[in-house]
Automatic annotation (TrEMBL):
InterPro entries named among the record's database cross-references: PDCD2_C, Znf_MYND
Designated name of the protein: Programmed cell death protein 2
Organism field: Vanessa tameamea
Domain MYND-type, first and last residues per copy: 131-168
GO terms of molecular function: zinc ion binding
Gene transcribed to yield this protein: LOC113393579
The keyword Transmembrane helix is annotated on this UniProt entry: no
Keyword annotations of the record: Metal-binding, Zinc, Zinc-finger
One Pfam entry name: PDCD2_C
One Gene Ontology CC term in the entry: nucleus
Amino acid sequence: MSTKCIDIGFVEEKSNWLLHPRFFPSKVGGKPAWLDLKNIPNPTELFCKKCNDPLTFLCQVYAPYEDSNNCFHRTIFLFICRNSSCCQTNLTDNFLVLRCQLPRKNEYYSFEPYEENENENFPMDKWAKLCNLCGLKAPSHCSKCKKIFYCSRKHQIMDWQKGHKDICNDTQKVNEYSSNCFVVTEAGKSILFKEWELLVDEEDEEEAGNIDPNQEMEKLNKMMEEKKAGTMSNISESELEQYAGTLPEDKVFSKFTKRIARHPDQVLRYDRGGIPLWITGNTENSLINIPNCQYCNSERQFEFQIMPQLLNFLNVGIEFNSIDWGVLAIYTCKASCDAGPVYKEEFLIKQDLTK
Ligand SMILES: [Zn+2]
Ligand SMILES: [Zn+2]
Ligand SMILES: [Zn+2]
Ligand SMILES: [Zn+2]
């Protein structure tokens, strides 16, 4: 058995400006903090394969390859379709994973880290126009002020109704928005997930080995009572007990609950080259073929997984409630290659808790 330390991630409230691209954040919700600021994918590349709606930014993980100059900065982005009807058991058509990387010396960011100064002059709009609402690439603009940009007519109308019509004539306010296109607007709040910083730290191994299984089920139940969303709270307690009662049949689920009980609020597990912590043994993941990188043909390896607990922090409205997953396991090109587009598509497996 491996005793290797893995990293786990938690969400924490953070001011929007501290999650700006120049700080290379790992984050959840809000607008994507793009890494390469010029070669941002077109909105058409970010459409849901099921319903064709634009995808919504879910989270990003800043994960450089320390020993590679080309990956001095490296971020993995996750997008999801907001329509819960696109969410299907163990299928990933409503997701998109993108990888982007930059050398330390690049045209966008300084060689040395930025100081935490809110008023730093960092004009992102000189590289690409981004949607005032969702932060995706924006091919169209407000025809009146010509300074606020949109990915789609839908978002333009929403923004007009929820605030832009009141400031369109106010040159100063329009300039503020156009020079800082990373701010989440009122209209943006209605379609984006709640914004959080994603803090990643070593998993504390202290308690490993002396966990009382009853106690850990209790902790997990408590966690599920407190939080209203997420895969595991969609299952009633009696169902869960029944499920737990099937142990040791589903040893994988038992291992899963035991491992996460140490840190019930974890939303991410990062273990590059490792093995995902699956939520159930009822799907035969060993049979799933992980395709090689479509750009360089290298093997892909497991990099990190998003946990169902993240659903508890997205703060989504009623229409989101049935967006769901057990674990999202992200696989990326082992070579983290530079071939292909600047934002490269990677692979994910969604495993749901099914009997
Ligand atoms: Zn969809
Ligand atoms: Zn938009
Ligand atoms: Zn306008
Ligand atoms: Zn590759």
